[in-house]
Amino acid sequence: MSNRKKYWTNKIIRTIITAIGVTLIAFLILHLTPGDPARIMLGSYASEENLEAVREKYNLNEPLYIQYWAWISSLAKGDLGTSIRYNRSVNTLIKDRIGPTLVLTLTGLIISVVLGVVMGILAALKRNSWLDYLTTVQAIFWISIPSFWLGILFLYIFGLQLRWVPIAGMVSYTSVILPALSLGLRQEAWFARPMRAEMLEVLNQEYIRAAKAKGLKYYIVVTKHALRNALIPIITMLALRLPWIIGGSVVIEVVFSWGGIGSLLVNSVKARDYPVVQAILLLISIAVVLANLFADIIYTWVDPRIRTEG
Amino acid sequence: MSKLLDINDLKVYFNTEEGVVKALAGVNFKIDKGSFHGLIGETGCGKSVTGLSILKLLDNNALIEGGKIIYKDENLLDKTEKQMQRDFRGNEIAMIFQDPGSSLNPVFTIQDQIQESVKMYKKASKQEYRNIVIEELKKVKLPDVEGLLDKYPHQLSGGMKQRVMIAMMLACNPNLLIADEPTTALDVSIQAQFLQVLKNLKEKFDMTVLYITHDLAVVSEICDYVSVMYAGRIVENVPVRELFKNPIHPYSYKLVHSVLGVKTLLENLEEIPGSVPRLIDPPSGCRFHPRCEEATDICKTKVPQLKKIGKNHYVACHRR
How many domains are contained in chain B? Predict the structure, then answer.
């Protein structure tokens, strides 16, 4: 087998093992937390008979390993099970709600990366100027505010007081602005600082001096020679921050009544709706693992030194 | 011969955490058009700083305190960054650096990096650019030129990278090429090849070269004229033959006699006592006086000025 093939087989096997591991841990944590889904669904006055019927229907009386095995084997067929709370196929539940979540997380991601990278570059170019300090201050500011609180604050200022954007739900294209900003600004801080540091380091490299010695215009030196090199470590940052962005979106979706996977997850945890929670956790873990895989691919694409070693 | 570059009393200081380092404390020399001018001195004496000052590519903590750098009747020190970029760097003055490994951008192909130099003065099609780059690479005698175009710097050897570096700078069509210890990172056998390439190119394209080095053997091989530098000042400006036949300044004398041919090596090898002074707190007067056997009181108090002592021969010493 060629090196390259070995590398990718390795990667894919590891991806699968990671995903299965995550589902197992999620499964155990869920089932070991107190709370009876049947009781939550039927209410405190339900008769013991009815409760038992529900438990029977969703196999809740079986030993854990049998329940897990049943779940895994139907998963292998592409079936994520049936929601206890909604009594609907989990596949359709997720399919209906994944769109809004993708819109929100991707917009948030783009805001955080674009703002972070631009701020980092400007801060590095204008080192020790007011702009540099401003970048630092705003980064600390966003990092220090919990995203749900930032969301509420945004809602109050831009939704209620200024009435620039809708305050909740997905009613128009502008709806995404506030939740995406609450999500993105906090993450932006995580990109701005490393970007600044990378840029400063790269600008001190000898090849930047050589590029200037050729007589290249300053903006070409910065946007071509420096940026391409400074961005390489940022790609790793991107893969590392993605779980946080997804995690943040769960909270943000609840604050903004955003009908996506995140709010579904929160409601399902409250209702101990095991099949839905497990399915979403599996999905998120796959997304994170795939993001890392994707980062590896981009890496080899931007850095030729890695390309030839593989 | 007419002058191409005239450096006059150049002073460059660096702000560091320990204090102000007076790296250049009055550098004076002229480069004739078409000459191969050597700038020689020990490590840390300010040779590279001099080279970088000409292109105004010094680090941010550098301060040009005074002096003039006259290039073709214009003082480069009066030029703005924008003017330097547009009118001087590359198309008039180019520079090759000590370490070819770190002077080429690791993420762009060889073709891309050379093409950039060409693009600044010539509009052409993709294919034409490719042909120009091939021509440029052939000039520096690189083998298998076409195969190199799409390679990245890390795929080449040190000697090849240094030639690519020259090709990249020559593609700018400079009149003056500053070479800052270009052979330091190369094997001895590659050094000789490299020097030959440089020498041929200089003659073929009628360039002027300022060659910065600490290697006297290289100087004797290729330079016409030499400026000897010590601790931020020029101590002797001398035609290369005179330097080896009749070095006047005590430092030049010691320098020449510290590296002799193999035959005389064992009997006559001399070392210069003491070590290079720290430029944060340089010796007063003549900066060489603590290491000079002939130093007298005046050497400790008064800075010696360059004075003419022969044809094209200048020396800065109170005792001569």
Answer: 1
Q: How far is A112 from chain B (nearest CA, A)?
A: 25
Q: Which domains does chain A carry?
A: 3-76 (no CATH), 99-307 (1.10.3720.10)
- Categorize the per-residue pLDDT at B262 as very low, low, confident or very high, splitting at 50, 70 and 90: very low
Calculated CA dihedral for residues A151, A152, A154, A155, nearest 10 degrees:
120
Give dist(CA B3, CA B237) in Å, integer: 15
Contact (CB<8Å) A216/B120 = yes
- B32 assigned to some structural domain: yes
Would B254 be classed as within a structural domain? Answer: yes
Nearest to B35 by CA among B220, B162, B199: B199
Encode pLDDT of A120-144 as tens digits: 999 999 988 999 999 999 999 998 9
Structure-block tokens of residue A241 = 């921050």
- CATH number of the domain that B198 lies in? 3.40.50.300
Q: Using CA atoms, how far apart are residues A29 and A18, in angstroms rounded to an integer?
A: 17
Of B89, B90, B99, the CB nearest to A206: B99
The domain of B247 spans 3-92+174-315
Q: What is the least distance, in Å, from the CA of A129 to any CA of chain B?
A: 14
- Residue B167 included in any domain: no
Distance from CA of B210 to the nearest CA of A (A): 15
Distance CA B182, CA B170 (A): 14
| Angle (CA) B222 B225 B230, round 5° | 105
Q: Is B107 on the interface with A (CB under 8 A)?
A: yes
Interface A-B: count of C-beta contacts within 8 A: 84
Neighboring chain B residues of A211 at a CB cutoff of 8 Å: 105, 116
For residue range A266-283, what is the model confidence (pLDDT) as tens digits? 999 888 888 898 889 888
- What band does A1 get if pLDDT is binned at 50, 70 and 90? low
Q: Is the ipTM of this complex over 0.85?
A: yes
Q: What is the pLDDT of residues A98-115, one digit of tens each?
A: 999 999 999 999 999 999
Q: B49, B56, B107, B169: which to substitute to probe chain A, counting the most A Cβ within 10 Å?
A: B107
